[in-house]
Write a structure and sequence with these properties.
The protein has 420 residues and is α+β, with helices and mostly antiparallel strands. It folds into 2 domains: 2-153, Response regulator (Rossmann fold); 175-412, Phosphatase 2c, domain 1. The protein has helices at residues 2-15, 31-40, 49-58, 77-89, 105-112, 128-182, 232-245, 261-275, 353-357, 368-375, 381-394, and strands at 20-24, 43-47, 64-68, 94-97, 119-122, 194-201, 209-215, 220-228, 249-252, 255-258, 283-291, 296-302, 308-310, 316-318, 337-340, 346-350, 405-412. The protein has a 5-stranded parallel β-sheet. It has a 5-stranded antiparallel β-sheet with strand order 6-17-16-13-14. Strand 11 (283-291) and strand 12 form a beta hairpin. It starts with a helix and ends in an 8-residue tail after the last strand.
Amino acid sequence: MQAISTQTNKKITSTGKKPRILIIGPEMVPETIQQAAHLLNIEKITCQMDQALDTAQKAQKIAAAVLILNNLDLSDCPRVLDLTHILESQPLCTLVIADESNENIEIQNILQHLNPERFAVVTQPESPQVTAARLATLMQIQPTIKKLSEEVDRLRMVSQPLNNYFSQVNEEMQLASRLQRDFLPREMPKIPGIKFANIFRPATWVSGDIYDVMRLDENHIGFYIADAVGHGMPAALLTMFIKRAIVTKRIEGHSYTLIEPGETLKQLNADMVGQDLSNFQFATCCYGLLNTKTLRLRLASAGHPAPMLINKTGQNSEINVGGSLLGVFPDQTYTTEIVQLHLGDKLLLYSDGVEVAFVNPGPDQPLRFRQEFDDLGYLDIKDMCDKLLHIINREEGSLHPRDDVTIVGLQIEDEPESEN
């Protein structure tokens, strides 16, 4: 105790002023606190609970605070909670004195949630010497807390522009996400006997995948999936380029000619190579052209996962059609494959994000997405896509996906009409 008094007296001598403590509580300050203040030779500022909020906010150069919660009315509990928040916001520590026999549940809850780094709680009577030692300790660490508080304020000032910047980036990414979705089909074409369904699940705000389904004339419909290599905004911007660059028909005067899928991909590749894109911006794509009368499907692929064909019995098989990535080699050619679809057939075009969306049982096991396609192949194409999306959303890690997931599926429902 003598050492504490000596250290405190040295502080008074060096500053010329006595340290000040704020005592909040009953009108009569407990004798223990009175004697502890006398031992430390410190100045007391006292206030009652109804004045505490205003006093705590206006008090200047306080070295520590004492909050006495004995004999409180129930009406004081909300005020106490507000007061603890104010005291914690100040660069000081507080000694809280509370009777352990107090059965006020609200006070007990407040005590349990006080920050132990800023509040020292005493629930049993102590001698003036022990109380003085506690107060001396709180006053000694007050300068450190004040410096830390000032440092936190400086960090807030530095971080505020960053917070504003990230908030602006977040808003821009949300806008980019909405704009990208505006480039997607708002609804699938309605064609008798043919039904389309899709899944579009970006890994972030924007996607490196894009798809389209478009009616080209009375007898033909074109559809594709493109997947830009990479993620985020660069990949999303490349999908916008692909959307505008892909050409499915050639108009000459008052007539037109539908372009073969292989020729469409060849022209798209030439356009991408001609742009001389930086940072190795490549893409994959699978494009299909379906005759809605004969159900003859013409397919071409540029480095994209093989389409999955599911027959009416639910058995699936991959359609072997391949080609090089888009945007890599100039003068690249792409082959058009012809597949005859039948009543009850389903066709799935999907991005490679589907392969990693399902957690595989082991490294030596086949990719699980094929099994899921097989298990759900009996469903209607819309129900199948809905079920696949439900399973993906429940997979481990689905909240932080590794890649974008896009599926475009079609189903042949009715007998096709004969070709004219």
